Structure formats: structure tokens, C-alpha cells
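Batch queue: ligand-bound targets. Current item pairs a single chain with nicotinamide-adenine-dinucleotide. No template structures supplied; prediction is de novo from sequence plus SMILES. Inputs echoed for audit trail.
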Amino acid sequence: MRVFNVAIVGTGFMGPAHTEGLRRLGMNVAGILGSSAEKSRRAAEELGIPRAYGNYSELLADGEIEAVHITSPNRHHYEQASAALRAGKHVHCEKPLAMTSAESGALCDLARGSGLAAGVNYNMRFYPLNWEVRAMIRSGALGRINSIYGSYVQDWLLYPTDYNWRVLSEEGGKLRAVADIGTHWLDLVQFVTGLSVSGVQADLKTVYPTRQRPIGEVETFSAKVEEIEATESIAIETEDSGAALLRFGDGAHGSLWVSQITAGRKNCLRYEIAGSEATVAWNSEQPNELWIGHRNEANRHLLRDPGLVSEDARAHIGYPGGHNEGYDDSFKHSFKSFYDYIAAGDFSAPEPFPTFADGHNEIVLCEAILESHEQGRWVEIG
Ligand SMILES: NC(=O)c1ccc[n+]([C@@H]2O[C@H](COP(=O)([O-])OP(=O)(O)OC[C@H]3O[C@@H](n4cnc5c(N)ncnc54)[C@H](O)[C@@H]3O)[C@@H](O)[C@H]2O)c1
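Prediction returned. C-alpha cells below.
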């Protein structure tokens, strides 16, 4: 693979995860930016990255940097992604792409015709068995899709003493569980089925209208392992959990349940897609297994193995069967599809990775889900 010079923005959970994924592909992670010059310096030292930037302008002025990976909190995405595109850098942005559809729409306009690649890290797509499901649906193995249902549940915000910037609407957006994890599910099921959500009816709940915020910055998931000393009480408007009934364009229907307060479920995305011929079910906590359900023959359990899957799925497998691949591999394959596309140099070709248009679509869905919840009615999409 051609080696690209990449800069990382953000030094929390995702900054090091992107660094590792990029390095596994042989990319040169040349610089990093945190929320202060000191944070950049410390992260650069810990991760062995040569340059620590003092601010974003310094990063953009670095002529060696060809691509920027944005892993800062959501409220910075729009500004940082726009500035990077304007500076002529390819952008790979964490989800959600922006805070509003006005912002994500503007980013799509900027990316279109820029001659630059603009991707969003919906990495769930890059678990190989999701490519297998996509190939099965395309080949007609499931027949007509009747229903698509599932959930994305976690437990890291179970207690009112759990805190992260995501709980604040000004930092993460008006929706939390739906935008943070629900959009992974919505992106994934639309990707594998090729169907688009056309209508939603939602019911959301803020179980804890007050939470205890630690004094000082807290990085994602750290509260589960670190002792918090001083806290202050803050009002919360974003949802802890909720449901959405869904209609898909071609007549399929279904539902999504999201929750960040489900004890014991650490990071669990599940879907079941039922067609007129067969059903498939996948769970991100056992990502190397796919359940295939039949009515007139025995059900099957497919274990990820390059010798047993379609070419599409095989292209996203790095190891033989039984040598389990997981979360970090999904990042590696997400980035590989992004950089392979840039290296091929044909920007008129369809992108094999989730684009800014996909990121925008997710935010349009989030806004429809919020409107439906607030107004207690079905909301049609576009
Ligand atoms: N694809 C996935 O699986 C996945 C998983 C987790 C998070 N995310 C997304 O990644 C993003 C970051 O989430 P996280 O969990 O890593 O959060 P985090 O709080 O752990 O890390 C965010 C980092 O950004 C830094 N930061 C804040 N303002 C900044 C600025 N202006 N410039 C540069 N750095 C700044 C913070 O100091 C912190 O180090 C979010 O958009 C989130 O939705 C995606």
C-alpha cells in the first residue's frame, strides 16, 4: 500500500485507536493534536508520534500531512473537517459527522468535487460477516426483506455518577444514545440491506435528569476504572435509552432499541434481518459468528473463515478462521478501504467506505427521531 502521512486530532479513546489502526496498515502517523499543546505533547510522547501540534492552524499548515483523522468530541467535527478540506487534506472523521444536518449538509457540499476523500468512521460495516450478510442479501439468499430489528446497548452510563461529555447536548448534540450508538446500527442495517429508512416513530427517555460531573476532564469509559474525587450536579437533557419503530422504503419494517444504561451489556450491537426465504442474526460481541435461520432445513452457524465466505467478505478478513478478529480489525479495514480508494486516484468511482453523504443521512435520521419523539407521531424522511 502507498504510505500516507496522517495527522490525528484528539487524544482520548479514539485518537490512539486510529493511530494503531493506521500503523497496522503501515501508514505514517506524523502528528497529533489534543485539546492543548501540553496534551498534544504528552500524547505524542506516549504514542511515539514525531510531531505534537500547538493548535489546529499549525496542523493544517503542515505541508507533509495529506490526511486528517478527526477524533475530537462531536461539537468540533464540523469546524475541523471544513478547515481540513479547505486546506486540501483528505478527511476521515469520527461519527457523528456533525451536530446538525445543516452542518453535515454543508460538509457534503464542501467535499463534493473537492478531489479529496471524505469518510466517516462507521467501522461496524467492516466486520467481515456484515459484508457476508450484504452479499447474501444481494444474491437473493434471504428473499424479500420483511423485517429489520435489533438494538445497540451498553452499560457505561448506568449510574447517575457516570459522566462523559456526550451527556451534554452542547458537546455531543441534542440526541445522545441514538446519535452515539444508534447511528452505527442505522448505518449498518441500511448498508447490509441496501434499504433506506423512510419513516420513524420514536420514544426516548432521560432516566437520569441529573448526573454528577467530575471536576476536570474525563475520557471515554475511564470512569469505570478510575476513582473520581470531586463532582458537581448537572442537569441532563439527552436520552439514556429509547426505541424507534422504523419503515424502510420498499415496505420492510422494524425497530431499534438503544440504551447506555443496560447492566452487563458492554458494547452490544445486535440485528436480525428476516426475509421471505431466510433470516440472519449478528451480534457485535460475538462478531466472528453469523446465525442463519431456515424454516425447512436446519439452521446454520457460520464461523468467520476466508474459505467459507463470499469474495466481498474475504476482502475484509485478515486472518484464518478461528483466529478471531474484532474491534481493532474493523478500524484497520475501515481505513484500508479509505486509503486504497485515494491511492487508486479515481475520485469519480463510488466510494467503498462510509462517506460524508452517509454521515449526513444519519444526522437527518437523528433529527427525524427527535422530532418524532417530541411530537409523538410518525415522521417521514425527506
Ligand atoms: N467509531 C467508534 O467505534 C467510536 C467509538 C468511540 C467514539 N467515537 C467517536 O469519536 C469521537 C471521540 O470520542 P472519544 O470516545 O475518543 O472521546 P474522548 O473524550 O475519549 O476523547 C476526545 C479527545 O479529544 C480531545 N479534544 C477536545 N477538544 C479538542 C480539540 N478542539 N482539538 C483536538 N482535540 C480535542 C480531548 O482532550 C480528548 O482527548 C466522538 O465523535 C465519538 O462519537 C467513535
